[in-house]
Write the structure tokens for this entry.
Amino acid sequence: MSALFEFLCRQGDSTLILGQRLGEWCGHAPALEEDIALANVALDLIGQTQMWLGLATEVEGAVRDADDLAMRRDVWDFRNLLLVEQPNGDFGQTTMRQWLFDQFHVLQLERLCDSADDRVAAIAAKAVKEVRYHLERSSGTVIALGDGTEESHGRMQAALDRLWPYAGEMFESDAIDAELAEAGIAPEPADLRAPWDVAVDATLAEATLTRPESDFTQTGGRSGKRHSEHLGHLLAQMQWLPRAYPDARW
Amino acid sequence: MRAGDLKPRVADVWEWLDAVPDPEIPVISVVDLGIVRDVAWDGDELVVTVTPTYSGCPATSVIAMEIETALRDRGIDRLRIATRIAPPWTTDWLSDKGRDKLAAYGIAPPSPAGGPEACPHCGAKTVTRVSQFGSTPCKAHWRCDSCLEPFDYFKCI
């Protein structure tokens, strides 16, 4: 398995799983506008998934397509971040998860726009415009709810405390990352930590939220070594139809 | 192309495409929207290059189908729709005609200022954002503070 293929699966799996999670809100969000916003963000992420996983199958040699990767792999073959597979919780927890990821996603895509691989750069240039918009909304909502009522503040702080151990995985670098960085295809994730910290601290201050002290990090999602128990349930929901009726078409 | 037919001129094909409506906002054409990036003959095959607006926009596949149908109706049998994502689509590619048609239809055209210049219904300058997102991926939801009507704003990206 080439490092590039592995990287593309990491990209596409994180956008796919987060897109699926956000889709779970469809028809359930606290207000119609939020419902539409969550579905729109999900749509962007799933569109980006088609590009990342589409390129992954091209790199692999076109033996299967993006739908095969999405629908016919099981938990141990997924390479998404643990953060994005965490359950939605309440609206505050969904918003917090989104913002922690969006802030990373923008920084990462901005670097990927300069990738030595033109195909990666093209996808990043397309995606970054959408993701900047996601960040504008998620950071604004974190501030509004964090610096909101006693109830909303408490829920946002609880969401931050709960999700914080999953943030560190975004900045872990392994042999695959080193190989891609060496080739100029993708940045070392660890290099994104400092600018992420600056941006996150600024938003947390405005949101009157307290950054957790511990930097203990849960790990194993993007390496595929150990997903949380939640991913299997999500996949069961997402994949049951194409698995029950293989090759079904509209 | 059928054997023996003359190839239509590329300029004519552009004109035909300018009559293909966007499926979600039928008041503007796919050419007005700026998503048709190139029209060229590759031997006997016509290649129409299209770029998506938003990467997950569900209208993208419908648009490809409508372009294909419109051109087949014009007798073009050998046709290929190619997708190009770089450079990424921008609302700067909306035609002036398209912008005017959007406003007349009740959708505020994109503005670099980050919000609509005026209410598309009454022309008042005082408007408020209701939601960053709207009825399609390309639009946001705004309201006029003067006539109080809600309206769509075509997001500027």
Remarks:
- The interface with chain A takes residues 52, 54-58, 85-90, 130-135, 137, 141, 155, 157 of chain B (CB under 8 Å).
